[in-house]
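Request:
You are asked to prepare a plain-text protein record giving the amino acid sequence and the backbone structure tokens, at your earliest convenience.
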Amino acid sequence: MAVALLALAGCGHKAPEANAAAPVIAFPVKAADGAMAGRFPGDVHARYEMPLSFRVSGQLVSRRVDPGERVKQGELLAQLDPADANKQMSAAKAALDAAEHRLVFATQQRDRDDAQFKQNLISQLQWQQTQDNYASALGGRDQARQQYALAQDQLRYTSLMADHDGVITSRQAEVGQVLAAGQQVFGFAWSGEREIDVDVPESRVGSITLGQAAIVTLPALPGHRYAAHVREIAPAADVSSHTYLVKVQVERADAALQLGMTADVTLQTDQSALAMVSIPATALFHQGERPAVWVVRPTDSTLELRPVIVARYGERDVLLSAGLNAGECIVMQGVHAVSVGEKVSPIAPPHPEDAPQ
């Protein structure tokens, strides 16, 4: 009876498992849309934007347009006081009339002296003086003519005209203000071509190329999609934001695409980008100098250290272009506390927000 009791007591204790699975936080990875990896916010601009200003100084006496107005090529936008320019043109016209009169007299004198010199009625010195007077009168007339043309231009420059169809985007001068030559009066955007200005982080600008295709969507225009392409990439980063300005030109802009609208630019990638996967930054390990991840084998739940190729590093995630397929289970946290061949039991992250999106 004592032997039987001892046998029953021994059945109450289980022998420890030789290969107990260690719990690890692991989760299946999801495919990352390569196009979404190249998505950036931006805003709509005109292909050509510039300040408008007078080419001469003066007092602004009238302003014909306000911000937001559309104007046609050749339309008068603003006017400087033309009084001084009119006086300069009148003086230049009087100087031109006098120069032309002197040229007529010098021409007549030259013709008379030419005839008399051929008959030896005047000396060669007198004839040469007549030729010199004629040349001086001719040069004076040409100079006066140029001064008169310049005065006409100065008078024309007191009127600010639109040199292209477009829209007034801003106003920097008021009536009565004395302006210097070249001082901005209006901001002006040409009609027609539109583009999206995008600020790209320095870590991602290397993957963008000139001519790269893109799709533009706008929150204000649901259902509208515009084909576009990368037209310009800034050669240097902005000193304050350390981002690169990328200009994406819209290929068929319509009237619905208004200046200043917020836009989403999705850069198109090749088909290989569609095979990318995204993992949390905490899941990345290293095998020597190469990046790697811990993969849970589905056959026996043991760990495999697999090298991967990183396409982009983000703030909280890493985009992989090779080495890992969507659906494979990898260790998300505690990558330094596991080893090759270790048997594990995958568990979900303790906080739902830590799970990969």
Q: What stands out?
A: The chain is about 20% helix and 35% strand. The chain has a mean pLDDT of 86. The radius of gyration is 41 Å. The first helix runs from residue 2 to 11.
